[in-house]
Design a protein that fits this description.
It is a single chain. This protein has 319 residues and is an all-alpha fold. 79% of the residues lie in helices and 0% in strands. The protein is built from 12 helices and no strands.
């Protein structure tokens, strides 16, 4: 029996993804030991203190979770590319669950992480903000491509009785990337405040207030997108709110004034932001429940209409 051959382009992109991610893990470890790097990441953060930086314990917990989660979904993606259908066809050539743009975006993210490590440990706070912004946008691009690919592949997954893969992508890939993207979004806001304060010499409380307000706008916009615009894509993504609440709570814990001292403006804004994120997370859960119960019939009708239109378009194209 003849076996379908692999697509060389896809395998090269997969290999680049694995190698670039491995480089990030190795260089992070070397940076923590100050090997090839003049400073470690934490010492630079302590050199440029902010009144909104989360408690030190938050960083290793979040970063460990990020790297473990990315490793798990990457292992799943590798195995997916070597699975075959019952007719011996390669599954990834039959179902384009992972578009080449997805791999490219994640590779760009890894390159951005490496660049950020070098510039941050060399105290180049302005360039480190640019690097963080670049890798954050790359992660959001990877997420968007993956959302789109899964949505377009749902019918094929159902027809081939591969619902498990739908959940693997939704839980591992989407929630893992969203966890990562949310944390580096917070890090970008912190890095911006660092650059404004220590690079442009703007007053500390003004810089950090600007960063908190930017993060507030991002949270509100994200909630609008996930609940009203891209709900069909982001229905099963919950991790951003866990990261936001954890990071902001850590910031409040570290910077809360001692007894007898008054709350600062940024303490109040952070408290309000924690409350807003908690409310938006609850709203996300409510919208999810509505989408799966009361609105389910309406959603199913729309999907049936979409499938009917797709079949008609395919028949027309065939004619």
């Amino acid at each position: 029996m003849n076996y379908e051959q692999h697509n060389l382009k896809n395998l090269i992109l997969l290999l680049l993804t694995v190698l670039s991610y491995s480089a990030v893990l190795i260089l992070n470890r070397l940076a923590s030991k100050k090997i090839f790097f003049p400073n470690d990441v934490g010492s630079i953060s302590r050199l440029f203190p902010l009144d909104i930086t989360p408690a030190p314990i938050i960083f290793p917990i979040i970063w460990s979770t990020i790297y473990i989660w990315q490793t798990i979904w990457l292992i799943y993606v590798i195995t997916f590319h070597f699975r075959r259908c019952s007719n011996r066809d390669l599954l990834y050539r039959k179902i384009q669950l992972f578009h080449p743009a997805f791999f490219l975006a994640f590779v760009f993210n890894n390159v951005g992480m490496i660049v950020w490590l070098f510039v941050w440990t060399n105290k180049l706070v302005g360039w480190s903000f640019v690097g963080l912004l670049f890798l954050t946008l790359a992660l959001y691009l990877a997420l968007y491509v993956s959302y789109k690919s899964l949505y377009l592949s749902r019918d094929q997954l159902i027809n081939l009785n591969l619902k498990t893969d739908f959940w693997m992508v939704s839980i591992l890939v989407h929630n893992g990337l969203a966890f990562f993207a949310t944390w580096v979004t917070i890090a970008s806001c912190l890095n911006l405040a660092t650059y404004l304060t220590y690079g442009l010499f703007i007053e500390l409380n003004i810089s950090t207030t600007c960063s908190l307000l930017i993060l507030s706008v991002i949270c509100i916009l994200f909630s609008i997108f996930e609940n009203f615009i891209w709900q069909k894509y982001m229905l099963y993504t919950f991790t951003p709110w866990i990261v936001l609440i954890s990071g902001l709570s850590g910031s409040l814990y570290k910077n809360y004034p001692k007894s007898g001292e008054n709350l600062s403006r940024n303490n109040i804004i952070t408290m309000l932001l924690v409350l807003i994120c908690a409310c938006l997370f609850a709203f996300k859960i409510i919208m999810f429940c509505l989408y799966k119960t009361i609105w389910k019939e309406k959603v199913d009708k729309k999907e049936s209409h979409r499938l009917l239109q797709a079949k008609q378009e395919n028949l027309t194209a065939a004619i």
